[in-house]
What we know:
The chain is mainly α. The chain has helices spanning 3-21, 32-54, 64-71, 76-95, 101-122; strands at residues 24-25, 28-29.
Amino acid sequence: MNTVLEAKRYLDNAREILREKANKDxxxxxxxxxxxxxxxxxxxxxxxxxxxxxxxxxxGRKDVDWYNQQLAPFDKKLRNAFVxxxxxxxxxxxxxxxxxxSIAEAGLAEAENVINWVESWMAGELKIS
Length: 129
């Protein structure tokens, strides 16, 4: 399966988790279990898209520092979107369970930015110098 389609599927799943299970009320989600699950799911979508772009690491596991180093020579907006997605989706939502709807929306938007960038690159719309 195309990595961009797979990444978008993860992002859609994260939105569905928040919409159907996290119980949004007055700008907050009341069930942080599902906030954590949605944050992790969306972040995994980002990593799937980036793995399709960056390829495999020669040794060891990939971590946030590896992604940062690999993205640094490319597009600054892509790297910033990745860092925003990492802090918002992985740390704030997945680990901390931040219940703020606006935080979740910002994280999902950053994920979408990363995935759309990779999709544009794969379609040949972006040239990397």
